[in-house]
């Protein structure tokens, strides 16, 4: 059995771990970091391009981030938080491009307008209120709104084909939205890290034991899936960023902060079209409203995707129930995750969410024709033969104790759990996930490396990587404008293609925006 000692152990080679590894190596190049991955490739689970929506989640188009309150007003808190977090990601990626660490931006991110579309008078009223609430702030000042079918036909031609002239419709648009190939991004970061002294990538390795020793280090036993060889690692800090596999690893660690957590796995499927004559007619991510009873991750959307340089259209996701925590996981994942300390929480969630369970099962039972019918609400002229079904990655939603009712609650989001001494951190949950990875990983660094972060060297380097670090973009419109102009230019998000005129977020005349009078 080989034994190694490292400063940092990252478990899971997806967007989260590669982002954390890149941040730490930029902050301190002398750190010894090892990344362990169960599969034989980097970023082939939830981070892979075909396993997620690829939306650079900035709350421009995702209607579930702005729920309507009982009094009819719009709750914008989550939208502003996600928008600010995504701006942090854009700043870090811009830094890496500027340092020639990442390749040309179009290899992992492409400008794709973010649009919302609704039909029916009630939904139109909601979208109008949402637009008014968001666009009043500089962060969303470039959002456009229209109820004019001709304008909407220009924005989203496929969506507006052959719709009734009497149908009430509305849409919003932010032109500098993005499509992100998170798989390519993670693999680019991993490739760079492998060239750095003190970094090691161990693929085809499964963590078999995780135990904190009396000296504060973690002893991690791993198995080589190809040779069967056993290895032992000692690490001062461990990050569990294994997607759906993070919960079993958190439970394995035994830290009390992880008690009571469980997971509710949800599968996903997409309808995919690769026919050029159809794909070239649509350049947008068009989000609608989720069906009643559907989980937030099931908000329907028709997306332009560019994955590994290949352009396609995706529609979905169609959710389903599964007991696997990973796409390439085991059907025993859910049963094995049930422990004495989370049994009550999980039973409570199971009993209180029967409607959700029935909805997910009904989604699994859908035929191809029924999925095409759902697509036709977005693309009326869609033909069944042009679309095929693709299976997306697994998402394990968070179950945690709920002191208010003595049971548990189901949460659709992400959450970081850290040990009291900061020697271990785990990321649970899903959306907005990879889009806000940089902000989430910076929060972990602040929690788990407080002494280093208090030093001038790390502070200066952090501000070099993320110029807005330590400041609020939501509260400082001047800084927001400066940062956004830089990132949109560096990442080439201010242009729709190489020959198009630039679409500046700051230079758009106010009178050219569509408003309620158009």
UniProtKB/TrEMBL annotation:
Signal peptide: none
Cofactor(s) needed by this chain: FAD
Pathway the protein contributes to: Carbohydrate metabolism; tricarboxylic acid cycle; oxaloacetate from (S)-malate (quinone route): step 1/1
UniProtKB keywords: FAD, Flavoprotein, Oxidoreductase, Tricarboxylic acid cycle
The EC number(s) this enzyme carries: 1.1.5.4
EC top class, as a word: oxidoreductase
Recorded catalytic activity of this chain's protein: (S)-malate + a quinone = a quinol + oxaloacetate
Molecular functions per Gene Ontology: (S)-2-hydroxyglutarate dehydrogenase activity; L-malate dehydrogenase (quinone) activity
Pfam families: Mqo
InterPro entries (alphabetical): FAD/NAD-bd_sf (IPR036188), MQO (IPR006231)
A GO BP annotation: tricarboxylic acid cycle
UniProt-annotated stretches for the region Disordered: 498-518
HAMAP family found in the cross-reference section: MQO (MF_00212)
Record-linked PANTHER family: L-2-HYDROXYGLUTARATE DEHYDROGENASE, MITOCHONDRIAL
Similarity-based family: Belongs to the MQO family.
Protein name: Probable malate:quinone oxidoreductase
Organism: Marinobacterium nitratireducens
Biological classification of the source: Bacteria, Pseudomonadati, Pseudomonadota, Gammaproteobacteria, Oceanospirillales
GN (gene name): mqo
